[in-house]
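> example.struct
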């Protein structure tokens, strides 16, 4: 495509992460006659939240019964397993334990178990400390929840397979194509990109870390702002990694959408531990030194951020201290694995979570989608969005039906 070429489309999907790709897949399956284009600002797909994902396929333990997260995680997990099998992609049902390491954790563990049962998580059960140690001999806990079907995969590989299928089905995928402007006229929407102009009747915004900005670019007040939280990981050295059989999680804080630092195997044979949750100084800020003045000013100018900070200031300070002090990070892991030593970990990678925050300083908990007369905008799709991606795509296709009829 040259700079002056113009693409005519019936629908444009903005964002080449796993949610955007899954949405394009669902739309193509439902309306095979549509001219469909997917635009990704980076030079390759799945660069950000998808590409920095830990690879855990969640079983649906945590999410409020009846919520989109609960329903789409369950459905999406089944679809993802089938997709991986059909495409010969790595998928290991290694199982997961959520451990209560203190007496104070036990009521929350029981509440989590009841929530998992309500959500229909298959074969989930409460176990005592003895059975926990039979499953994970080096894990600590007075009691635990065992979810045997929690799995791991490679979401970047899944994204490549989705893109391959879309290309074979005639979907136009353009990388290096950030949308710089959205204009409307009688013929529909005009999207300006460095690779040319795209004319489309409808669009779906799956812009992840930039979801709120793209919505505003398209003339929509999203009602929320993305506040980026970086999650940092350490990798266990081989001797320590050999002591981990599956996934070991703590009982999460019910007031926060983060799951606490945990220990997870990967399909590549490694074991990583984390993440923490610290404010990122750039929307794509994977290191402390990654600072984007515009992004940071955008966060600090938002009243909702300061209300959030006032509510969780102590938690935020602890997360920063743990980020800057390796021994503090390891001490938090030792609650799960008491025999883990500081010299048994090394620096790992990091991801940035696109967390929507409303004007009252509340962390948006569920997936959040806004529909207008000519567009859908996905404004909050953090974990378990990768697990749920194929089901999210089908859900969005259903939401598009009134716009495409």
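> example.seq
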């Amino acid at each position: 495509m040259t700079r002056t070429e113009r693409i005519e489309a019936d629908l444009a999907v903005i964002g080449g992460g796993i949610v955007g790709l899954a949405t394009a897949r669902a739309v193509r399956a439902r309306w095979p006659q549509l001219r469909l284009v997917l635009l990704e600002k980076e030079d390759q797909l799945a660069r950000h939240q998808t590409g920095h994902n830990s690879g855990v396929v969640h079983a649906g333990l945590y999410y409020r019964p009846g919520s989109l997260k609960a329903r789409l995680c369950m459905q999406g997990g089944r679809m993802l397993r089938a997709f991986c099998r059909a495409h010969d992609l790595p998928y290991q049902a290694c199982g997961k334990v959520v451990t209560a390491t203190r007496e104070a954790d036990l009521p929350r563990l029981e509440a989590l178990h009841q929530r998992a049962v309500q959500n229909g998580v298959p074969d989930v059960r409460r176990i005592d400390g003895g059975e926990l140690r039979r499953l994970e001999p080096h894990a600590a806990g007075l009691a635990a929840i065992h979810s045997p079907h929690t799995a791991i995969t490679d979401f970047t590989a899944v994204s490549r397979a989705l893109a391959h299928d879309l290309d074979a089905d005639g979907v136009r995928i353009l990388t290096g194509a950030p949308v710089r402007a959205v204009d409307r006229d009688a013929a529909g929407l005009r999207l300006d990109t460095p690779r040319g102009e795209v004319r489309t009747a409808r669009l779906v915004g799956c812009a992840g870390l930039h979801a709120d900005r793209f919505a505003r670019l398209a003339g929509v007040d999203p009602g929320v702002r993305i506040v980026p939280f970086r999650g940092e990981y350490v990798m266990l050295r081989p001797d320590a990694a050999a002591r981990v059989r599956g996934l070991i999680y703590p009982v999460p804080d019910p007031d926060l959408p983060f799951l606490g630092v945990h220990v997870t195997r990967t399909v590549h044979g490694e074991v990583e531990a984390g993440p923490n949750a610290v404010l990122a100084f750039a929307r794509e800020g994977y290191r402390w030194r990654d600072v984007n003045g515009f992004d940071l000013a955008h966060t600090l100018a938002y009243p909702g951020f300061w209300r959030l900070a006032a509510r969780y200031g102590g938690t935020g300070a602890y997360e920063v201290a743990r980020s800057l002090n390796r021994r503090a990070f390891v001490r938090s892991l030792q609650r799960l694995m008491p025999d883990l030593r500081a010299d048994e970990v090394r620096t790992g990678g990091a991801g940035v979570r696109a967390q929507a925050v409303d004007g009252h300083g509340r962390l948006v908990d569920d997936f959040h989608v806004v529909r207008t007369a000519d567009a859908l905008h996905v404004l909050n799709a953090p974990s378990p969005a990768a697990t749920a991606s194929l089901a999210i795509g089908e859900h969005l296709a259903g939401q598009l039906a009134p716009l495409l009829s």
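> remarks
The first strand starts at residue 6 and ends at 14.
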